[in-house]
Amino acid sequence: MNSYRYNRWDRSRTRERADAWKRNETTGGWHEPVFRNDCGSAVRCNQVWGYGQASCRCTPVEQQATVTSMPFRKRIGHADLPPTVVAAIPAESYLTARDRPDTATLVVWVIDPTLNRQREREYSHATGAFLTLAERHALCPPNRTFAMPDGRVTVHVGYRFDPDTGVCSETYAAYDNATSALLVQSEQMCFSPATRDPEDVVRDALRKAEFPRTYAGWIVPERIGYWVGVLYRQRRQAGESGAHEDAAFTAALVEQMKRVDPNIEWLLPSVLAELARMEMTDAHLLRAAFSERTGIAI
């Protein structure tokens, strides 16, 4: 069965982690289970990686944003890379690469064992060399703005590079047209396997900013289901970045949870128990990992 819940791998082992990335991109990735979306609706993945249309029970006003199909970029195999890149990046460290025809460059993701995360490098076909961050930044499109469809919000688009990994992200700062107040900031990686429409990213961020009021109206089982979905996605994203899944358990994550629910700690035992059941992993080990990494005794 091609399911994330049944095909788990030890992400601390470089070779298997790289192979898992290849499985994701050649077979279509893993299917997500049912969980509660930020709008409170029950969501099931209808396509790979949860990027298809979601089955949503909320009203259009509550949902505000629709999960739309995202274009996947074709992956380049290690053997098909330019000889200079093959010589510089061994197959066991290679994750994926994608061409940028507009800049005549190749963006490569590799495993960085010192960070236990992916590192992003960019190779120039013209010079036959890897670019510096400054050179990469010069290739970014000019900053721009766009208006959200409702006409009430203007979004400023820019770019930033992670100083540790070199990953380039497109950033979005949404401002209220009436007051000029900054409403939300969000971003997405420019060269991930699939990208979303910027309007959808900003719309989701705006909706999440209003989420605590929606959450307050939920009963306990609904709250538990929501947090299970949050932790599941965070752990999956940590693994896909090359880190161990438990790296998703951080004090910063707990602080974010507390901003939504100040009493989240009393829910955590039930949340982690359900997460362990869903992932088919040992609940005691999962609780221990959460406690060790967050400092919260469960």
Lay out the secondary structure.
Elements: H1 14-27, E1 35-36, E2 42-43, H2 60-63, H3 83-88, E3 94-100, E4 105-112, E5 117-124, E6 129-130, H4 133-138, E7 144-147, E8 153-161, E9 168-176, E10 182-189, H5 198-209, H6 211-216, H7 220-240, H8 251-260, H9 268-279, H10 283-294
Antiparallel strand pairs: 1-2, 3-4, 4-5, 5-6, 7-8, 8-9, 9-10
Helix pairs in contact: 7-9
Q: Please give the count of helices.
A: 10
What ranges have pLDDT less than 50 throughout 5 or more consecutive residues? 1-71
Q: How much helical structure, as a percent, in the residues? A: 25-40%
**On the 0-100 scale, what is the average pLDDT?**
80
The succession of helices and strands, N to C, reads HEEHHEEEEHEEEEHHHHHH
Please state the structural category: alpha+beta
How does the major sheet shape up? Answer: 4 strands, antiparallel
Report the β-strand fraction as a percent range.
15-25%
C-alpha-based Rg, rounded: 20 Å
What is the number of strand segments?
A: 10
Distance between the termini: 33 Å
